[in-house]
Specification:
By secondary structure, the protein is α+β, with helices and mostly antiparallel strands. Helices cover 39% and strands 24% of the residues.
Length: 249
């Protein structure tokens, strides 16, 4: 017979403490898991469509920067940069937007001199003439940004026959397009509009008879912002001239 005294109440107290500690620990872990789940973003419904138009992850609210230009170089190769450029929103052939896309045509009129004189804007234009070195899909890419807001104004992209799936991909991403058959030249355009932004994909034949896809994205809100800014600057310049004239005499 063992002569040692067994402390039964002490053991029971230790067990109760352990059970209490484990219960608290489980409660804390459960709370952390629930909180973590609630912090995750709710995935968009599978049938939802994108809210705006993008090219290589650049969208209406992307701001031009060195890092953006560096990423574009990784995808499109060497770039030529121009500043203080004219803006021509027309595509495909002279008169195309006048015939089929009046709102863009009216913006183009506001951005250009009625007499045909050269008019430059405070812009940054990125021109990729040989993107095939990085991607077989693109033949030419031009990206125009406002140098004031740093926001994109207009993207013009030309894809070769390898871009045959572009229209189906955009239909899946943006929904059903409006189809426009050209009246006096062989070609057809598909367009999507969201708010004041417009995406047009035109299918034509190149000089070798192969399909060519001409893509243009107009960021209408950003273009309107540029137009309004320039009008304010013109009005301010006129007021300054008037003040200078009055103060001279």
């Amino acid at each position: 017979m063992d002569n040692k005294t067994i402390d039964i109440p002490g053991r029971l107290n230790n067990m109760r403490l352990k059970i209490l500690f484990l219960s608290i620990l489980l409660l804390v872990i459960s709370s952390m898991i629930i909180t973590g789940c609630n912090d995750q973003e709710t995935p968009a419904p599978s049938g939802s469509k994108a809210s705006s138009f993008t090219f290589l992850e650049l969208g209406a609210n992307t701001l031009y920067s060195k890092s953006v230009r560096s990423k574009l170089g990784d995808s499109l190769g060497p770039v030529a940069v121009a500043r203080k450029t004219p803006i021509d929103l027309d595509v495909n052939y002279p008169g195309f937007i006048e015939a089929y896309f009046k709102p863009i045509y009216h913006r183009n009129q506001q951005l250009n001199d009625a007499t045909g004189a050269r008019r430059e804007h405070d812009t940054i234009k990125l021109m990729y003439r040989y993107p095939q070195q990085k991607s077989r899909l693109f033949k030419k890419v031009e990206l125009l940004f406002s140098n004031q807001s740093k926001k994109p104004l207009c993207f013009k992209i030309v894809a070769g026959k390898e871009g045959a799936e572009i229209i189906d991909a955009m239909r899946e991403k943006y929904g059903s397009p409006k189809e426009t058959k050209w009246s006096h030249e062989p070609g057809v355009s598909y367009s999507w509009e969201k708010d004041r932004d417009l995406l047009i994909v035109s299918r034509v034949l190149d000089r070798f008879g192969d399909p060519e896809y001409r893509i243009v994205i107009y960021y209408g809100t950003n273009i309107d912002e540029l137009i309004e800014t320039e009008l304010r600057q013109i009005q301010q310049s006129e007021e300054n001239r008037k003040k200078a004239g009055r103060s001279a005499f």
